[in-house]
Amino acid sequence: MHDPMTVAFCIPNPFRRRYSWGKRWINRPRLITIWHVDPECDGTDDSCGWFSPKLTKEQVSALSHAAWCEGRSPFYLRLNNETNNYATDALHLMECAFGYVGDLIRVRVAPDEARRWSLQAIRSDGDNLRHLLCFKAGWHSNSDSDRLSDREECALGLFRSVARWILRERRPWWKHPRWHLRHWKIQIHWQRKTIQSECSATK
């Protein structure tokens, strides 16, 4: 469990300015901070789905069945490696995954959307989904042998990541949890802080 509070909005103080010595930018201190406090109604600290919408029971069941099939007849996890560094193969596999998972969760994904999302999912050197397009025993699991349950769990992680991506892209802005007014906690910064310039601090 983590802190259920997330910053939804920050309102700067229109009457105070914070200058930086030797620089041209002006930073206004916060006047009001609006927090979103997750009610943790499902036992987690993200029951509202801040980062991505929650999957329904039907969607989870469909993804679990697909992972069961993937564990016995690998299509996306055929590569025995730590990560899929073959750009062309990874792009085609990820594009197929977006179309396949879209059908599973009953959300239509257009071909141009699948291609654009696939490029975003694999092109980053750090935060990407290429490591989910392969399975290596001992690296993607806690066992040095290729166990069926480990492959299913890895496949389920791939399908869930793609499903959350699709739902996050399709979610309207007004359905984001930051607009849950009943979960707001407003913090007003009344205290005044003495700001010293860098010039005086170095003396």
Record keyword descriptors for this entry:
three-stranded antiparallel β-sheet; single chain; 5 strands; alpha+beta; two-stranded antiparallel sheet; 2 domains
How are the SSEs placed, and which strands pair?
Layout: E1 5-12, E2 18-19, E3 26-27, E4 30-37, H1 57-72, H2 87-104, H3 111-123, H4 148-170, E5 184-188, H5 198-202
Antiparallel strand pairs: 1-4, 2-3, 4-5
Helix pairs in contact: 1-4, 2-3, 2-4
How is this structure best described in words?
With 203 residues, the protein is α+β, with helices and mostly antiparallel strands. It has two domains: 5-44 and 178-202, no CATH class; 57-173, no CATH class. Helix content is 37%, strand content 12%. The chain is built from five helices and five strands; from the N terminus they run ββββααααβα. It has helices spanning 57-72, 87-104, 111-123, 148-170, 198-202, and strands at 5-12, 18-19, 26-27, 30-37, 184-188. Helix 1 (57-72) packs across helix 4 (148-170) and helix 2 packs across helix 3.
